[in-house]
């Protein structure tokens, strides 16, 4: 264990296949958390829906292991909690970017419309619920061949070390988890996310597998689902990849996550 300026145990590794995978292995071996795991490099990082996650040194790769963070039906809300914590952290280390930051449903952080961070939440039920929140922040570099346009802090003129971003993230996550209060405070989290999300009426395209749906952003509901209004009225969407409707060229089918 390497101590940092946070009050949750932190395991800092030089290299691992995936910080999420390591957190899940430790949970299966009896680790209850909370525990942060970071790595300078991942050899098999992954994003949502099994996509590869580019993991060269210089960026932040972190996972937070939590046991029973909320009742199982509400546990997925932690995606929004984590998204707000990442937003808070980047504002802390790169204040000049604050006005250019926005959240893309459910939990990507954008800077100037380009992806700066991604979050992967995984869970297992072994003697209770175990949740791992994996967070990647592009600090020093970003990939080019990606599903969504990407950027990094250095490219945006606000270089910050992975360690500095991690300390800010851990502190922000602590505050947002307390605000969420095991889902009892989701109304506050939802309001905060909406204040940083797309404006009502923003045209969106949502892709899930081979299915595509177009509509205008309405809100997220009290469960965290995306609500859009299209030709068939208001639709409730529980999962999918979201793109600005004016960016049809940003919809490749076989690229890596960022």
TrEMBL record:
Keyword Thylakoid (UniProt): no
Enzymatic reactions: biotin + L-lysyl-[protein] + ATP = N(6)-biotinyl-L-lysyl-[protein] + AMP + diphosphate + H(+)
Pfam families per UniProt: BPL_C, BPL_LplA_LipB
Domain of life: Bacteria
Class of this enzyme: ligase
Gene3D superfamilies cross-referenced by the UniProt entry: 2.30.30.100, Bira Bifunctional Protein, Domain 2
Entry EC no(s): 6.3.4.15
Molecular function via GO: biotin--[biotin carboxyl-carrier protein] ligase activity
Ligase as UniProt keyword: yes
Domain BPL/LPL catalytic: residue ranges: 1-181
Protein name stated in the entry: biotin--[biotin carboxyl-carrier protein] ligase
Species annotation: Rhodoplanes azumiensis
């Amino acid at each position: 264990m390497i101590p940092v300026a946070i009050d949750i145990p932190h395991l800092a590794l030089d290299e691992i296949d995936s910080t999420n995978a390591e957190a899940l292995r430790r949970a299966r071996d009896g680790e209850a958390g909370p525990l942060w795991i970071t790595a300078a490099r991942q050899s098999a990082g992954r994003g949502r829906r099994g996509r590869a996650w580019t993991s060269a040194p210089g960026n932040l790769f972190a996972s937070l292991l939590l046991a029973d963070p909320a009742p199982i039906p509400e546990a997925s809300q932690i995606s929004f909690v984590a998204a707000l914590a990442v937003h808070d952290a980047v504002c802390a280390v790169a204040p000049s970017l604050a006005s250019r930051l926005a959240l893309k449903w459910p939990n990507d952080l954008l800077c100037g419309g380009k992806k700066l961070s991604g979050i992967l939440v995984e869970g297992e039920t072994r003697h209770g619920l175990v949740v791992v929140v994996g967070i990647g922040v592009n600090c020093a570099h970003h990939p080019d061949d990606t599903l969504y346009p990407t950027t990094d802090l250095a490219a945006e003129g606000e270089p910050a070390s992975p360690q500095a971003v991690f300390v800010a993230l851990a502190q922000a996550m602590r505050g947002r988890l307390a605000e969420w209060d095991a889902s009892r405070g989701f109304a506050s989290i939802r309001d905060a996310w909406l204040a940083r999300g797309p404006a009502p009426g923003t045209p969106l395209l949502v892709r899930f597998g081979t299915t595509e749906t177009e509509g205008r952003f309405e809100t997220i509901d009290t469960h965290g689902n995306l609500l859009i209004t299209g030709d068939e009225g208001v639709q409730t969407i529980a999962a999918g990849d979201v793109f600005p409707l004016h960016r049809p060229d940003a919809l490749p089918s076989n690229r890596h996550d960022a």
